Amino acid sequence: MSSLEIPLKWVKGRSHSFPDSSDRLLIYVLIDVVACHNTLNLELAKPHIYGS
């Protein structure tokens, strides 16, 4: 979860300029992107793990 710490701090710091619903949506999108990115990295790494 360490990869989320900095973006979440940034989102909280800027939350005064966003309504609550947009702030929540931004956090959900951020988590989605990080989760997809991690899944993609795992998929790309599989052939290398099994190849060695």
UniProtKB/TrEMBL annotation:
Keywords: Plasmid. It comes from the Bacteria. This is Uncharacterized protein. It comes from Nostoc flagelliforme CCNUN1.
